[in-house]
Amino acid sequence: MTDSKTQHIKFNDAELKRLAEVPVIRNVRDHRHPALLFRFGRNRARGSWLVVRHVNGKSPTRKLGNWPDIPAKTALELLPKKLAELTTDPDSIVGESGWVTLGDLLRWHLDRVTRDRSKSEDWKANVRSLIACQLLPRVGSLHLAQVKKATIDDQLIWPMQEVRSLAYTRQAFGLVKTALSRAVKLELLKASPLSEMVFKDSIDTPIRPKPCAIRPLQLPPLLARLCTEGAMLTALCMLPLLMLCHGTRISETRLAKWTNIELVEGGEWYFPPEDTKTDQALRLPLTRFTLALLKAYRAQQKRTGYTGIYLFPRGDGEPLTDNQGQALIASLAGGEWTSHDLRKIARTLWLDLGVDYFIGELLLNHDIPDLQAAYIHTHAEALKRDALERWHTWLESRGLPFFATATGPRHAAIGTDPHANNHAG
Length: 425
Known about the structure:
alpha+beta; Double Stranded RNA Binding Domain; DNA polymerase, domain 1; two-stranded antiparallel ribbon; elongated; disordered C terminus
């Protein structure tokens, strides 16, 4: 064996594995393919495929990908295409870390998302589903050089909008752009071919929010169903009821812990940042109504032998998964509405009750500009409590017992018509 740092062979994986055991050899060439260079990395079990082009007396190299992620046979198949692309466009997109297709890049992005501790499990699951069920089947096989406005429009946006909502289609497109942009920022791609593309380039129809599927007149019969014997003080009742009472998301509500709830007069329900969609802590005042309801629910859990930390545990003591929570809501809704509609109807009726717009945004834990947040900070907690007191009084007047006394539910408060309150305000 020669002691030269460059060895000439016929490219194949078996020979590369054999040469990996010879530390003095760094570069490997094949006389049949002078434009392709293989270079071992510090970890001899891995290496890089480099495309060599002779231009104006210089021989610049561009990385084609990593070995063994890209085996020798694949590298030889890709070489003519990559040379043609570089001849036409010297800045042609070139993938690092073994990327050949858009699917390779999306899997890399998913791996980063999965290991991102700042993101919620629900958000990660949504990204995982979007990539696996929509992006990989539709555009995963596209070579990186084929990722252009026209191909994304033709193979992703246009066919997807025929069978899925515009909002979901836009979310899929945005995920592709995000993955490309992140790779560029980390210098794993030279440029993103979609940097100048926006969703409106393909579809300029405005995407309007879906209207709430629950109307105010539907609340009394819904409340009656929640209060039927056998359902009261069970997860089937309490999960949607607490969401309706506070406008919380199902992802936040199902993770609730008793240790974050102060079961005392003037207490609050605390949501840590890691449990919220916005990564911002949320504090919700407990009214006399919800305090009584939660005390009754906790007592019922203890009577059935459960003393764990979660409000909505599953069989193994951990909290309900998102799918389990959604299935529970679906069994109640019968396909007529979703968990998010409970949040929507609460927000709608808060406005009817005269709740300040910014207080409503705080209760929903929406992002609020710093200037607006500073403006309402001083009286925010008192105003949040007042808003929920009015809302819960209205719900009680529509037939919801809150176990406010030891002997039975409170009588409905008078003067609780939302429009009357709005006019009075």
